Amino acid sequence: MKTFSFRTSEDSISFKDYSELKKYGLPEICFTGRSNVGKSSLINAITNRKSLASTSNKPGHTRKIFFYNISRKFMLVDLPGYGYAQVSKRKIEEISQLVFLYLTKRTYLKKVYILIDSRHGFKESDINFLEFIKSNNITYQIVFTKTDKVSHKEREKLIQGIQFHKLIKNNNPFFTSSKTKLGIKDIKKQIINILSENG
Ligand SMILES: Nc1nc2c(ncn2[C@@H]2O[C@H](COP(=O)(O)OP(=O)(O)OP(=O)(O)O)[C@@H](O)[C@H]2O)c(=O)[nH]1
Ligand SMILES: [Mg+2]
User: Fold this and answer.
1) C-alpha–C-alpha distance, residues 155 and 153, integer Å
2) Which of 17, 40, 128, 193 would staple 53 via disulfide (CB 3.0–4.6 Å)?
3) Residue 153, burial from CB neighbour count under 10 angstroms (0-12, 13-18, 19+)
4) What CATH fold (topology level) applies to the domain 13-197?
5) Residue nearest to ligand 1 atom 21, measured at CA
6) How far is the CA of 175 from the centre of ligand 1 (A)?
């Protein structure tokens, strides 16, 4: 198995229009989910950087697609969050279009991690998004975030929810915390496997 360091020396490159998106010729792994779920924080935890990806407690912070070149081997991609109502309708449409085109057209995309806040579980916007992902045959995996904020009991409840919901049955979700670093090593291991499988 090949090993990769998850270091990045360069800063991010961001795009707000699909037509501007560069072709890097490198495999891409992307993170998506509702606004404020912890996408940018997870990228920081994976790359072991405090503020590579800009984070905020204000939902709707990331409004463009951000690419992080990791050791010139692959790209980690931070997508704008969905399910956030506090931006204008036009802005939501622009962002949705960008995310839609990226997810459906990008041939370099190898995996989509869908993040779910452990405190809130699946919301209607998550279910709609999952339906879209499944109907487009996009490879995805569920990642529960902010597990440091929930009790063991609440975590068990989340697991039971997964068993029962047909959309995510057998998806083997990750349980993570960008604060305690729970599950970060496991995601990194899986990314290395995906990259090995893709040559
Ligand atoms: N306790 C705790 N807080 C977290 C964790 N991950 C993220 N947060 C906090 O949650 C807030 C949102 O985190 P972001 O990483 O900016 O979330 P995002 O999904 O990128 O948000 P948008 O860019 O707005 O879509 C910030 O205040 C983070 O500090 C975690 O694992 N544990
Ligand atoms: Mg963000």
Assistant:
1) 5
2) 40
3) exposed
4) Rossmann fold (3.40.50)
5) 36
6) 15
CA distances from 112 to 9, 60, 142, 150 (A): 23, 19, 9, 24
pLDDT tens column, 145-169: 999 999 999 988 888 877 778 778 7
51-89 per-position pLDDT tens digit = 888 888 877 777 889 999 998 899 999 998 887 767 788
CA distances to 1, 54, 131 from 168, rounded to whole Å, are 29, 29, 10
Q: What is the pTM of this model?
A: 0.93
Nearest protein CA to atom 7 of ligand 1, as residue: 38
Q: Which residue has the tokens 């975590």?
A: 155
Contact call for residues 131 and 53 (beta carbons, < 8 A): no
Nearest bound ligand to the CA of residue 38? 1
Is the Cβ–Cβ distance between 147 and 175 less than 8 Å?
yes
Name the β-bridge partners of 141: 113
Q: Which residues does residue 46 pair with via DSSP β-bridges, in sequence order? A: none
d(CA 10, CA 164): 43
Please check whether residue 64 is in contact with residue 12, taking contact to mean a CB–CB distance below 8 angstroms: no
Q: What is the DSSP string of 69-97?
A: EETTTEEEEEPPPBS--SS-HHHHHHHHH
Ligand 1 atom nearest 178 alpha carbon: 31
Q: List CB-based neighbours of ion ligand 2 within 5 Å.
A: 39-40, 61-62
